[in-house]
Amino acid sequence: MSVQHDPVQRADFDQVMVPNYAPAAFVPVRGQGSRVWDQSGRELIDFAGGIAVNVLGHCHPALVSALTEQANTMWHISNVFTNEPALRLAHKLVDATFADRVFFCNSGAEANEAAFKLARRVAFDKFGEDKCEIIAATNSFHGRTLFTVSVGGQPKYSDGFGPKIQGISHVPYNDLDALKAAISDKTCAVVLEPIQGEGGVLPADQAYLEGARKLCDEHNALLVFDEVQTGMGRSGELFAYMHYGVTPDILSSAKSLGGGFPIGAMLTTTELAKHLAVGTHGTTYGGNPLACAVGEAVIDVINTPAVLAGVKAKHQQFTSRLQAIGEKYGVFSEVRGLGLLLGCVLSDAWKGKAKAVLDAAAVEGVMVLQASPDVVRFAPSLVVEDADINEGLDRFERAVAKLVQG
After folding, report:
1. Can you say which residues are annotated as belonging to the binding site for pyridoxal 5'-phosphate?
2. Which one of 251, 271, 302 terminates a domain?
3. Residues marked as binding?
4. Terminus-to-terminus CA distance in the chain, angstroms?
5. What are the tens digits of pLDDT across the range 369-393?
6. Among residues 302, 317, 351, which one ends one of the domains?
7. Residues annotated in the binding site for N(2)-acetyl-L-ornithine, as ranges?
8. Which uninterrupted H or E stretch holds 116?
9. In the structure, how many helices (H) and strands (E) does the chain have?
10. pLDDT digits (tens, 9 = 90+) for 194-230
């Protein structure tokens, strides 16, 4: 039986929601695969992926089935008990990565919060309270809690909320000399995204991550990789650290991990995990059976040679076509990224106009993102069908052509 709902429209947002978002003028109501329909029945192709979340598109049968089965079994039991889906998902993550131990939570910010608290706790236990400094990159993004937004290197998000957390400094991304100059024996962690997401879809240089690993080892600091956006097959490997062959001490995951169901995870080694003894950290919903059942289905589908190889093939399809569009209309100076996390860097004439491109694309029936005002971002489903890629990029080209014609 279907429930009768009261009618709502986009205008209701301005009446009842806190005004911290400015959502699109249309309201999506249904999704299937890489297609979405709005309230008027208009169909759009989804290359935004819920900001790199809908890793298997909308309503993927494996995820619907896992959620439905779990919903009929058990929803919540709390961390006074453990549960089977959480244990199964933890095993799968440990088996597939460098990690021995997993901490589950509900979001990327919470996964990073746990990572940063663990890094400080390890340093506190082993070296005392002076070793507490965290080095992160300018233009990085690590979440919106007070701690994670302070570690993130974007003052526009962290200013205006009173005193900031102390002991955090920022250095330019991909600048090994700057990191070398900043790191000291007081540093407890270096925090990096293997590909800067919100900062403009900027991949790390190989030598930069290798150098960061070496510097951390020399200074007894932990290397933390924020793979909230880059993880779960997005780069063409299960996690982007595998693409680089540089292993962190702590890794955070979320977004694609639940394929649209809220879940986060912090992965680390047994040696480091023991510093979060009973009572030192927690979350009411973390390891929730619903979330973990879905996460298990996600990793079962994604962590297969066929899907990961497909990501690399689709990368080529997207980049060759986007480069052609960029050259034909003079709108992009570069198309960069790994796998299906792509950034089209706007040319000088179009700098600052990513939102205009995004809006024009929506009018033509394709959903894309921005990563800073200068970069148009694509983060589609990893199993987006070729027909959807072609049709979506046709629509995108029409949008660009109309913008250029003014």
Report:
1. 108-109, 141, 226-229, 284
2. 302
3. 108-109, 141, 144, 226-229, 283-284
4. 49
5. 999 999 999 999 999 999 999 999 9
6. 302
7. 144, 283
8. helix 108-127
9. 15, 17
10. 999 999 999 999 999 999 999 999 999 999 999 999 9
